[in-house]
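User: 7,8-dihydroneopterin aldolase, Hymenobacter jeongseonensis:
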Amino acid sequence: MGQIALEGLEFFAFHGYYDEEQKIGNKYGVDLYITTNLLAAGESDKLHQTVNYEVLYRMVAEEMRAPARLLEHVAHRVLDRIIAELPHVRKVRVSVSKFNPPLGGICHRARVTLVRKRKQEPAA
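Assistant: Predicted structure for 7,8-dihydroneopterin aldolase:
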């Protein structure tokens, strides 16, 4: 097993609990970590034996384009999509951050982190 990480992804998106946040938008950050078997790709140097970083980025970008009220919901959608579409991924951890959230004071960012492991298939 090994880990692929995409750190410091940045997006301008329209998430937020308040209607105004969904109208004016904000800057968001995403850190994504997946656990998968990297041995075959390490030995072969073949892209088809690993998870393509561009595919991961595109999945995150598409989920970031769909407005949500809560960061938790955005992170949940990213987890669901990766687990559903990439069967070789064993574990996903995603952090979604909102920069300068409207809290009435100074806060560089608010962040949520969710983790999901693929359910083990029962032995036949």
